[in-house]
């Protein structure tokens, strides 16, 4: 059998330049989102240090409640790092699969409620000392 007589399956067409460009821009946007999760986690870590360590000294108060509050900010930072990493993986998979992967509302709600609680407790604790 000659090589030209072989039946071959058609190859899938190579992606167009426009398709590659869209994939690259979307992937880079997902990466920027992941970096935003990291920046927010670093900010929460700084908040944990400020509230847990520096606020009691600056306000001349017992450190206990502030240390606990600082631990709350640290837990927020940890959650942001973990869920940000998971989100990055989900976005990369969705890009490769060509499907939409919205952020689950319960995750948005959990971080929002946690943030509101931390800020409220911070304002109450610090406001009570002024």
Which terms would index this structure?
mainly alpha, 130 residues
Helix content: over 70%
Helix-strand category: mainly alpha
| SS field, number of helical segments | 3
- Span of the ends, CA to CA: 92 Å
What's the β-strand tally? Answer: 0
Q: What proportion strand?
A: under 5%
Low-confidence stretches: none
Query: What is the total number of structural domains?
Result: 1
Query: How do the SSEs run, as a string of H and E?
Result: HHH
What characterizes the major β-sheet?
Answer: none
The gross shape turns out to be elongated
Q: Round the mean pLDDT to the nearest integer and report it.
A: 88
* Radius of gyration, CA atoms, in whole angstroms: 24 Å
Question: What can you tell me about this protein's structure?
Answer:
It is built from 3 helices and no strands. Helix content is 78%, strand content 0%. With 130 residues, it is mostly helical. The protein has one domain (37-129). The mean pLDDT is 88. It is elongated.
Please outline what is shown here.
This protein has 130 residues and is mainly α.
Task: Give the helices and strands, then pairings.
Elements: H1 17-59, H2 64-97, H3 105-129
């Amino acid at each position: 059998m000659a090589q030209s007589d072989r039946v071959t399956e058609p190859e899938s067409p190579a992606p167009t330049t426009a398709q590659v460009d869209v994939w690259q821009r979307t992937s880079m946007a997902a990466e920027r989102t992941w970096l935003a999760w990291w920046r927010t986690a670093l900010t929460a870590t700084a908040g944990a240090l400020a509230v847990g360590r520096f606020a009691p000294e600056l306000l001349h108060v017992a450190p206990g409640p502030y240390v606990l509050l600082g631990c709350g900010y640290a837990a927020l930072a940890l959650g942001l790092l973990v869920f940000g990493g998971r989100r990055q993986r989900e976005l990369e998979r969705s890009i490769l699969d060509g499907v939409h992967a919205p952020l689950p509302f319960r995750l948005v709600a959990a971080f929002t409620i946690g943030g509101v609680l931390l800020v409220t407790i911070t304002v109450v604790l610090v406001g009570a000392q002024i």
